[in-house]
Please model this.
Amino acid sequence: MNPLLHDAAQRASRYLAGLDERSVYPTAAAIARLAELDQPMPEHPQPADAVLRQLDELGSPATMANAGGRFFGFVVGGALPVSVAANWLATAWDQNSANPAAAPATAAFELVALRWLRELLDLPRDAAGAFVTGTTMGNLCALAAARHAVLERAGWDVEADGLFGAPPITVVVGAEAHPTLFKALGVLGLGRNRVVTVPVDGQGRMRAECLPRLAGPSIVCTQAGNVNTGAFDPFDALCEQAHRDGAWVHVDGAFGLWAQAAPGLRHLCAGVNRADSWATDAHKWLNVPYDSGLAFVRDASALRAAMSVTAAYLPTPGDGARVPSDFTPELSRRARGVDVWAALSALGREGVAALVERCCAHARTFAQGLRGAGVEVLNEVVLNQVLVRFGDAQTTRDVIEALQADGTCWCGLTQWQGQVAMRISVSSWATTEADVERSLAAILRLANGRAR
Ligand SMILES: *Cc1c(COP(=O)(O)O)cnc(C)c1O
Model:
């Protein structure tokens, strides 16, 4: 037994077991102690066990307890124990998952995980898939494939010749597109600002009747799961119109695409599989450790054209095996797909559906409890997101601040169509009914204390 790894496992277990008792946001004292880290780099080697002890003693108390059941900020999932354990083992393997010639095992696990995901999310069975760091990179990869394909149809090779002098691409987004989509557009040279914006309804859904007629190279960016409301764009109508005009349709489905895996929620995604590319996260709703996202592209050759390395020194498998790095921005990378494979294996189809549906049921319990107490819920709670307002903007800010300091649970502040709101996102396997009741009681206690 390696004592250091054994010690790490014990410390991690103790950390997780203690989450239920502690404040979700770390105490001011724990954060203040982080200043002790600011030392000169050691001149001499330090014993590894002392390094680990310092990491645990200073780091663990100063973490946000989002691995526990009462963190409802952003859209941050927990990490299923089986995926944490698989992650540890795969880290010990230390495989370079760029190429099956270097890492046959991880290539095989990832290949199966991608097939299971296409089936689970009901995406085209021959779509290309790629394990990336998150949906930001998933969007970037999928939009790079889109850029390749729409320019190729216009007779332009963007990978070879770049964008200077290329035919212009019309990029269409919804008015409530996620900010990271614009980052991807900027990195790709498509421009954060040179987009055509389609207005949305009160839930943030693109109004399909406002999609303009498109001509020439065009990309329409849609969304499954608005980060505030959880709402879905009308994919059937958007795909119908966009494809009629020869445009590429992309779906940012960071968490919402997982509704495809839950029979009770699939109707929300109607038509999503008619799109040309999809990005989603595994570190959100599949509850695997950071960082883990995915890109899927219907036309595998487009993703490959955008991402493949062409270098003679890299071995090409003689058997035509898939080379993962032909589909990802990275060459060397960790075996993200192993954590995903472990989560999917342990949950099965039923387990994934139950996880997603349970989070949505908890969100409805929050909404009912709050509405019942006279608190305004701003959105139609169709998924796992609840937007709440406590009277005016200042009171809403005050309640959020008091709640975060109270530590029973953690919810963040957001802006929704010009209004300050508190967002409750239920995205973790670890959240129980008792966690929801305890959090609801804390929210109402603090809101009542601050009612104006
Ligand atoms: C979280 C989120 C993203 C960004 O995902 P990362 O994994 O943080 O890169 C993009 N789009 C939507 C809708 C999201 O919710």
About this structure: Residues 75, 134-136, 178, 180, 223, 225, 227, 252, 254-255, 281, 293 surround pyridoxal-5'-phosphate (CB under 6 Å). The chain has a mean pLDDT of 96. The longest helix spans residues 336-372.
